[in-house]
Amino acid sequence: MTNTRRVAIVGIGSTAAPGKIHPEKSWKEIVADAAYEAMQDCGMKPKDIDGACIGYHGEGNQEQGGIGGSVTDLLGIAPAPTFPTSMNCSGGSVSLNTGWEMVASGKYNHVLVMGFDKEGDNMAYTENINISFDTEYDYNFGFRHRDGFELMSKTYMRHYGYKDYTCYAAMAYQAHWYARRNPKATYYGAPMPEFESLKNANSCMSVMGEGCAAVILVPEEEAYKYSKHPVWLDGISLSCTSHYIAHRYGEPPMGEGFPKDLKREEMYGQSVALIDAARKAYKQAGITAGDIDVAEVYDLTAGAFWFLDGLGITEYGKGAQFFIDGETAIDGKCPVNTDGGNIARGHASGADGLNMVVEGVVQLRGEGGERQVKDPKCAVCACVGSAFAHMTVAVLTNDEFKKNN
Amino acid sequence: MSAEFPEQIYHHTTASVTRAWRERRGRYLIEGTRCKDCGALSFPRRTICAQCGSRNLEPYEHPSTGTIIEANVCWSSAGVHQGYGENIPRISTVIELDDGVKILAEVTDTDYDKIVPGKRVEMVLKKLHRESNSTWQYGYKFVVTD
Asked: Fewer Cβ atoms within 10 Å of its own Cβ: the N or the C terminal residue of chain B?
């Protein structure tokens, strides 16, 4: 990228147990909890923040619209602006995209990026989460984006020859293993499930709840002022396509021959928008899939499988086998979802994309404790919004990465 | 109907009846659009062709028969299924209509073991749920004809 500044992540914060409802706290309190943890992490005060952005699932889900002003006020950062995005589960990571642009452009210097969800305040939650995709047709016929995930999972498993749910059990068990070593995970401290009990279609469902995650971005020249171990946000991209679930079969909204060089006949239950987002983020960061030491992906039903395929970590159709073979374990080829993922860390929709980034930073700083991957240099965080309507990919690196390449 | 609510929960904040009226031909007839410049077919209806970018589109009634290409019968009543009441299991299928266009639809009045890829289906018009002003809404579902 020419004429843009390199962007560093210097502060991280997140609320614990994002897979639980926290009735004692309002959405403003959970946002403040994560934001102030991030400021504390890098030694900033609210008045140091000169711009903010926040992602959430959507106004219907939160019963709070036009939140920019409210967020600025609750954080005590006025008159700094807060730019909101409402992009379903990818809200936090789309917000990160905005934050990167705010710093890279040179207009802002200390940007607080947040993503949150507070679903429990909403009585008609099912109703409102379902308006986050095609509302002219799918929603009015009673479909939810989970239907899209389940249909795509069936297509993936049938075409690539996965006859039972062993791959689901492998993915879920792995997630639970990591979560037992992450004090902020929803299932931290809970007993491990039996492997055999996870061999079913429901073992890879998100454990949904409420929470907030936050990171602080600064330009390169200020990185070491605020952090001993800045993590570089070297690549970030968002690719969008249609919300209509049936469009996942052939992707007509993307036009003929898109993305380039892909053989459609090899791709069953894959997300074309993810592949596009990954290519753009890798190009920006100057990495290849082989450089990835740890990956954070969106695990719902077979989601993590097509994420591994789409990110190029595995060949098409091999993502599920990668879990079965244990390559996503802490000593495997590419550890995946080292915080426990949606399955066991917990899924607070709008915070999800940023919770992934927070874990990426923890790993690259070497602060993972019991779940620390050995000497990671490059982490990739990929998130989905709705049923693959918007896909984000972020590439994080630390200083070790520069030295070795 | 669920115990908690007199009607299925997905009625409760349904958008205006005007919106349903505007989409009536799509919902009753599976009417989408055809691009007059490149011939691309689309459902739901579009205002700009995704293939060639043209705005020269015309209404196009898709065939009412097709083939199931993916099907899911979900018996879970937890999480985002809360409030679906007697509408469990949730049946979702992707159907390739005979002109090649894909549509997401529910298969109804059919034994579960027949709701699998490869089966031929035909559209039927069904009563769905009430709009916010209590008007009943109708729309397409499909039955297996094999």
From this structure: C
